[in-house]
Design a protein that fits this description.
about 180 residues, alpha+beta, globular
C-alpha cells in the first residue's frame, strides 16, 4: 500500500509539473482561437477572425473547415478558381511595447494555388497609424503543411500589432496553428 501511495504521489507531481508547463505555453500565445477550432456560427468563419471583403464569406470562398487541420480539427480555408485577393484580420489589435521580442508562427497548406499564393503579415501600429510590417514568404502550388515564422524586436513607438492572413491568386489554401508571443 505504501509503495502504491509513493507511485501515486510521483504521478501527481509529474502531472502538476506538466500542467504548469502547458499553462505557461498556452498563456504566452496572445491570440484567441489560434488553432481555428472555434467557428462563428453566424458567419461560418473561424471565431475571432474577420474577412475584409464579406462577399467572400457570402460566396463561401472563405470558410471554417472542420475537416482539415494541422494538429487538430479546424482551419481557415480559402477556395476559389477565380483569381482573388483576400485579407483576413485577427479581430483585435494586440497591445505591444517597444523593445519586446516578437515570435510569430503559422502553418499553411496549399492545393493547386496559382498566383502569389498564401502568406501571413504582422503590422506594427502606433495608435491607428501603420509604422511598418513583416511578412512571411508566399506559399503557392501544392504543398503539405509548412511552418512560417517571423521574429523581430518591436520598434520604438509601437503600441499595437495586427495579424493579417493574405491570399492572392486562385486555388485552395488552409491556415492553422497561429502563434504570437511577445517577451
Amino acid at each position: 500500500m505504501k509503495r502504491w501511495l509513493e507511485i501515486f504521489e510521483v504521478g501527481l507531481i509529474l502531472l502538476s509539473f506538466l500542467s504548469v508547463v502547458y499553462a505557461q505555453e498556452f498563456q504566452q500565445n496572445l491570440l484567441f482561437n489560434y488553432d481555428f477550432g472555434a467557428r462563428d456560427t453566424a458567419t461560418g468563419t473561424p471565431a475571432a477572425w474577420d474577412v475584409e471583403d464579406f462577399s467572400q464569406v457570402e460566396n463561401k470562398l472563405v470558410i471554417w473547415d472542420g475537416d482539415v487541420g494541422h494538429t487538430t480539427y479546424g482551419s481557415l480555408k480559402i477556395a476559389t478558381w477565380d483569381p482573388i485577393k483576400s485579407i483576413i484580420n485577427y479581430a483585435e489589435v494586440v497591445d505591444a511595447k517597444p523593445g519586446d521580442n516578437l515570435t510569430f508562427a503559422i502553418w499553411i497548406k496549399t492545393e493547386l494555388v496559382k498566383g502569389n499564393g498564401a502568406r501571413a503579415k504582422i503590422v506594427y501600429l502606433k495608435g491607428e497609424d501603420v509604422m511598418g510590417e513583416k511578412t512571411t514568404d508566399f506559399l503557392n502550388g501544392t504543398s503539405s503543411w509548412k511552418k512560417f515564422s517571423i521574429t523581430d524586436k518591436l520598434p520604438e513607438g509601437v503600441t499595437g500589432i495586427k495579424v493579417i492572413l493574405e491570399f492572392d491568386g486562385q486555388g485552395i489554401a488552409w491556415y492553422d496553428d497561429v502563434s504570437l508571443v511577445l517577451q
